Amino acid sequence: MTGAIPLSAVLEALVLGYLLGSIPFGLFFAFASGAGDVRKIGSGNIGATNVLRTGKKWAAAATLLFDGFKGAAAVLVARMLLPPGCEIFAALAAVLGHIFPVWLGFKGGKGVATFFGVTIALYWPAGLLAAATWLVAALIWRISSLSALVAIALSPLYFFLLGRHGYAPLAALLAALIFFTHRENIRRLLSGEEPRIGSKGAKSK
Predict the structure, then answer these.
(1) Is residue 146 part of a domain?
(2) pLDDT tens digits for 59-94?
(3) How many distinct structural domains can be found in the chain?
């Protein structure tokens, strides 16, 4: 990531990332499973956790996988086709596209799976550390949103400690964005009302 990046390349990376990130896989898989419009269920967002509330586990798993894949694809395609450093802009735009998809009136998911996808694609050791952090936190507290927030908050540190200093500011920015999308979850966590994994609580992630 040396030298100035042409503005045209930055714009291309942003468009690429946004278009990939805005693909509403949760909506597609919910309809394909026969569950209907996932936006009318649970929390109303298009992420994997809300798709799971339809009872269609395969649709939720597919949503999780493809939401992560689209983030990774944005980074990898930008890295292959555009100047070095453009993958940062593609990663940012992919998460923004998932959260604010133009096709759905800018009302999408909360960005967790797409965040993990871009993190793994940017530098897989840092991404795997973040994923492992989620798993450990989930085993301890059994709260999906809390596990995600802990893992995402630590991701800038992982990039920094592993020598990928240029990616740490991006991870910090994305962490702040995802904390914002989880503001209701944070409120419920503070009040002790956030559902645990496997429970039938209302509007979690």
Answers:
(1) yes
(2) 999 999 999 999 999 999 999 999 999 999 999 999
(3) 1
